[in-house]
């Protein structure tokens, strides 16, 4: 088990990585799924043998309220159907924390429940916010859970210039679920999970 990292350099590196993902040209992405709420693309990850996913959709609400629903905190468990528990293990200055959370089984439990321990950081970006995270090798895995690993991931949320009550939400997710899983099952689950994330989030914001 690694000790907890110094949060400031990790937060800075994480933000720079996400900003770099955000500048990847459209031609490098391939559409993986499209719904009325979001479009999901993917490209091979530079971090591991799976994919980096990009999801994007317009959400009707102000940036701060949307990000409050996404980042670690009381809202997330209420509406995110995939997340089954969440504990803040450590809180640092500058909107940084370490959280442990568990996810439900997926695809008729072909993908068993997973546990993650993530460093999370929320910061300003242009006129909006970026909330981002990366998994840490910290703490013992709980029994009955496979410990997954999130490579650098995050959500950019910026107000639409001509419609300030709406925000453009763009996510970058690359999750290594680990365990013995067929890659096709992982790819199906990831695309669907990201599309559902938008529809669930929209319902929660309207509730």
Automatic annotation (TrEMBL):
One of its GO terms (molecular function) is cholesterol transfer activity. Residues 10-207 form the START domain. It comes from the Eukaryota. GO terms for biological process: cholesterol import; cholesterol transport involved in cholesterol storage; intracellular cholesterol transport. GO terms for cellular component: cytosol; endoplasmic reticulum. PROSITE patterns: START. InterPro entries: StarD4, START-like_dom_sf, START_lipid-bd_dom. The lineage of its organism: Eukaryota, Metazoa, Chordata, Craniata, Vertebrata. It holds the Pfam family START. This is STAR4 protein.
């Amino acid at each position: 088990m690694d000790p907890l990292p110094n949060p400031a350099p990790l937060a800075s590196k994480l933000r720079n990585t996400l900003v770099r993902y955000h500048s990847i040209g459209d031609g490098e992405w391939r559409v993986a799924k499209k719904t009325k709420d979001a479009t999901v693309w993917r490209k091979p990850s530079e971090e591991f043998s799976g994919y980096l996913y990009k999801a994007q959709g317009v959400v009707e609400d102000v940036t701060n309220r949307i990000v409050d629903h996404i980042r670690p905190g009381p809202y997330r468990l209420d509406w995110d159907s995939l997340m089954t528990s969440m504990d803040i293990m450590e809180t640092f200055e500058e909107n940084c924390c370490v959280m442990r959370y568990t996810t439900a089984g997926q695809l008729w439990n072909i993908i068993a429940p997973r546990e993650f321990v993530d460093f999370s950081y929320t910061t300003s970006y242009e006129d909006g916010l970026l909330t981002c995270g990366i998994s840490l090798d910290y703490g013992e895995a709980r029994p009955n859970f496979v410990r997954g690993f999130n490579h650098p991931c995050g959500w950019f949320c910026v107000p639409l210039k001509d419609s300030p009550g709406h925000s453009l939400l763009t996510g970058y997710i690359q999750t290594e679920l680990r365990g013995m899983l067929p890659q096709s099952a992982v790819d199906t689950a990831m695309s669907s999970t990201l599309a559902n994330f938008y529809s669930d989030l929209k319902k929660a914001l309207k509730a």
